[in-house]
Amino acid sequence: MRPPPHVTASPTAAFHAWSSSSRRRPRHRGGSGMTMSVSCCRVAALVSLLAAGAATALLTFSLLSSPGVSTTRRTDFAGTLSVANETPPPPHLSAPPAPATQPPSPLSPPVVRPRKREPSYWRMAPEEALRYAKKKIRNAEAVLDDPDLYAPLFKNVSQFKRSYELMERILKVYIYQDGRRPIFHTPPLSGIYASEGWFMKLLKESRRHVVTDASKAHLFYLPYSSQQLRLTLYQADSHNLRPLAAYLRNFVRGLANKYPFWNRTRGADHFLVACHDWGPYTTTAHRDLRKNAIKALCNADSSEGIFTPGKDVSLPETTIRTPRRPLRYVGGLPVSRRSILAFFAGNMHGRVRQVLLRHWGDGQDDDMRVYSLLPNRVSRRMNYIQHMKNSRFCLCPMGYEVNSPRIVEAFYYECVPVIIADNFVLPFGEVLDWSAFSVVVAEKDIPDLKKILQGISLRRYVAMHDCVKRLQRHFLWHARPIKYDLFHMILHSIWLSRVNQIELEG
Description:
Number of helices: 16
Distance between the termini: 91 Å
């Protein structure tokens, strides 16, 4: 069978095909001239085939003898040796030469250097990892651009970002399973003390940070609720908080006798989170709990000797009305639609609110809407939340204690808070620049409050309002925590407190 026309035969195969065909005598319808012509064609074809074979042999011999060609020997399946030639490709098929290195053009984007490989934190001892983190935070590289962080909100956004990244990679927390319910392990998720409950709930659900092996932990959590402690043990109208403090003291003593962890640092790597006004006073019966442990407290009063700025954490007080929808009422109006200069309505708890009401309350000034409780004639036209959304400034005076849930409410409704509490340590004050999004007024300056607020230019106010809107994400609870939200901000402050306690070697 003849090969298809598109298959090229070798010279030898072509020669045999020609020989066999020459034995057959074709039938010729023409004369002898035609026969001679066919014979000449056959001879010419034979000569061409022989010439092609000779040229192929000559080319092969020249390539084998060329020093630029590598020759390898291989053994075929029959055991004979054959030669495989590796010839370079023709010049027109060669790879193009590599272009010469040129200096980057001034308009080209900057070269991003790859970050150095991080060490294996899980192999480090807890204090070694904290010491490493402290060095890295101090030497944090400048943040050029991060869409999740707005630099004017922070004292040092580069250090915050680096510290937060290290917290995510390093921090492990051990949660004690001891303690009787409902005082322990029963988080309140609604009301004005919900911060302690939401933190407890979300930390318990965290797979990233919680460990069951206490030897790997950098921090130890005492999962109690100051609100549940009050509801369970406090005798109404007794004004006696000693039983509450004694209960917490006995719990810590039990942990110290049962486990080795408290005694290693005398409680310096342990923390609690308490939002009730009495939270600080429940720690006073145990010396190391009061002096050494990290206390995240809503009642962050620096004048009483219980809250220690720099070690303890100011916990934001958040009002959660609907636990299943904690973000239900979040949002506000633009600056152009905020017609009220300042607004406050609430119970007359403590000394500061009395002074505020005396100077600005009961309709004395239409720009300053200050009420003890929102009157029905007013609330029918505009309720409490609508007042906050229509006001430029929301007044946040202290009550019986320095803290107030109105600060976070102001953020929720995009209203610039005016904080009137002389000894209050502001939440996340170690990383946030509160002058960018709030006004702090001394208690003695309440008579000049309107003058102080009117002295803020419109340009300045617009910038502050924009900062409030950008800050809002850092004060929101989510059923599933997201980056830089309130749960992570609280956890970061506790982490940073512990890191700052570590002494660097050398």
